[in-house]
Amino acid sequence: MTIRFLLRAMFLWLTLGIAAPTYAQQTDPKPLIDALGTADFKQAEALIGQIAATGDPRVVPPLNAFAEGELYVRKSDTLVFMTKPAGANLTLVNPLTGESVGEAPKAAVAKIKVNNNLRRVIRAALGGLTLLSPEKFVRLSAADAVLKAPSAENLQLLETALAKETDAQVRGRMEEARAVSVLASDRSVEEKRAAIQTIANIGGRSVIGILQSASPNLDPMLREDVMSAIIKIESSLALWDYAQNIWYGLSLGSVLLLAAIGLAITFGVMGIINMAHGEMVMIGAYSTFMVQEVIRSHYPGLFDWSLTIALPVAFLVTAAVGLVMERGVIRFLYGRPLETLLATWGISLILQQGVRSIFGPTNREVGNPSWMSGSFSVGYMNFTWNRLWIVCFSLSVFFALLLLLKRSAFGLQMRAVTQNRRMASSMGIRTSWVDAFTFALGSGVAGLAGVALSQIDNVSPNLGQSYIIDSFMVVVFGGVGNLWGTLVGALSLGVLNKFLEPTVGAVLGKILVLVLIILFIQKRPRGLFALKGRAIEA
Fold first, then answer.
1. I need a surface site. Which of 34, 336, 436, 479 has the fewest CB within 10 A?
2. 16 has pLDDT over 70
3. DSSP string, 107-166
4. How does DSSP classify residue 184?
């Protein structure tokens, strides 16, 4: 046993004794670092690649110091050091070991100059040095760094790392980084053509920049491949942009749906042009603000539940305001649309001024719960959590109202009054109370819209004014009093707006939408989905 152990120890000692000098000779980065002291920018760029190619982790501090402009050369012998202040002098620090090697007057050393291009090369080199890290996240970040700043010097290190990589995600990213590095190297035309194909499969706007910058230095026979790859990427990005615009349009449409769905109920059942509907949205937003203020002051641990708590509060507050409006003013003005419009407009001004007097004219902050903060990506599409939740919430409110109208006694009475008020009254339905509770329901739904809008818009006395005109357009376009028409109208107008805005601008886009709706109403005065009923058809 002892003899076997001694033999193994002798073999290991001989192996290390033979291999160590060779390894030190091949990988010692000190001469390369010292050469930075007399190199110009172009030479320094090549030296950085050679320093990184050693794979020695000790070169990370001097490379970082070089990027920050904190690397110095001693004038007497052109050796390179990092430094520390030492009174009137500087302490010279060995860049590889970090050990102090004495002091020198400030005039005896000179700072090695660095520019932005060198900093980019250094970042890529530092990324390459971590390609062999045992941590997956570190390797992935290193491959990303090389991908963003390709360099031929990192190519050999990338191929070494690829040969050892077992994780599929990291391996795929390394192959992409290798492809962009191949274009910057002197590899064969066949390898570069394969690299161009790999880069084309990556996609993305940053890749187009890489291909365009590499194209002038490539063989002329490869430039056609580069152009084909760029066209392929741009076509793919155009499709993603198209899908992104559809999502933005659906997101805007969901906001319009929330703002308009309550108006569709009151307008459809009662025929009331409620110019104060936007103020119901505003009151819902301020109810959310008050709920959050109470939670911040007394129950901070419940902040993530603030919106859940605010929903019933906003609904009840705005429904109560709507009920008071209907019982106090609107019920005396049925059948007089102009007077109703003027009265509700006056009420809207009173509500706005009342909110200004209580809360002030400035915007109020309504925070986002943690589950509505942040964003995520799918391909090249970006989604924010607050918009996604608002879309889901809008559809939930829509289907809840649909269920109420189709499956409840109150919904049956509402539909009866809408289709034939006189017949409904003769059947014993108290139409005046149906009107009152319908108006309260529409106002309450507007309050729910205010809760949602508080997460994406400024909570101010003018909040509702931004949506009242669009809400009327949605209701008229979809069909007065028809919930399905309101849904289709809101989503259609939202998508149309988002496709027009990049082309003609936001203001002109809204004008064009209004013109299109006017032309549409000329052909279909009752909107997309007209209600059926004897009184309506008469």
1. 336
2. no
3. GGEEEPP--HHHHHHHHHHHHHHTTT-SSHHHHHHHHHHHHHS--GGGHHHHHHHHHH--
4. T
Confidence of residue 55 (pLDDT cuts 50, 70, 90): low
How many CB atoms are closer than 10 A to CB 316? 14
What was the pLDDT predicted at 505? 76
Nearest in space to 119 (alpha carbons), one of 159, 151, 158? 151
- List the Cα angle 100/101/102 in 5-degree steps: 100
Token pair 């949605």 is found at: 474
The predicted pLDDT at position 285 comes to 92
Identify any residues that bridge with 364 across adjacent strands, giving them in sequence order: 459
For residue 277, pLDDT beyond 60: yes
Q: Is the dihedral of CA 254, 256, 261, 262 positive or negative?
A: positive
For the segment 505-512, the average pLDDT, to the nearest whole number, is 77
Instruction: State which H helix or E strand residue 92 sits in.
Output: strand 89-93
Cα(159)–Cα(162) distance, integer angstroms? 5
In whole angstroms, what is the distance from residue 338 CA to residue 223 CA?
A: 69
Helix, strand or coil for residue 105? Answer: strand
Asked whether 252 and 471 are in contact (CB, 8 A), the reply is: no
Q: Which residues contact 307 (CB under 8 A, 6 or more apart)?
A: 288, 369, 372, 451, 455
pTM greater than the 0.70 cutoff: no
Q: How far is CA 280 from CA 73, 307, 366, 451, in A?
A: 71, 17, 17, 11
Task: Give dist(CA 361, CA 356) in Å, integer.
Answer: 5
Cβ atoms 457, 466 nearer than 8 A: yes
Question: CA-CA distance, 278 to 468, in Å (whole number)?
Answer: 5
8 A C-beta contact, residue 450 and residue 460:
no
Place of tokens 């194909």: 197
- Both structure tokens of 214: 């590499």
Report the distance separating Cα 244 and Cα 349, nearest Å. Answer: 38
**How much of the chain is helix, strand and coil, in % rounded to 5?**
75, 5, 20
CA distance 344 to 340: 6
Helix/strand/coil for 144: helix
3-state secondary structure of 103: strand
Q: Is residue 25 pLDDT above 70, yes or no?
A: no
| Tokens linked to 103 | 């002091």
Centroid of chain to Cα 509: 24
Identify the H or E element spanning 216.
none
| Whole-number pLDDT of residue 361 | 87
CB-based contact 260:470 (threshold 8 Å)? yes
C-alpha 462/C-alpha 219 separation (Å) is 62
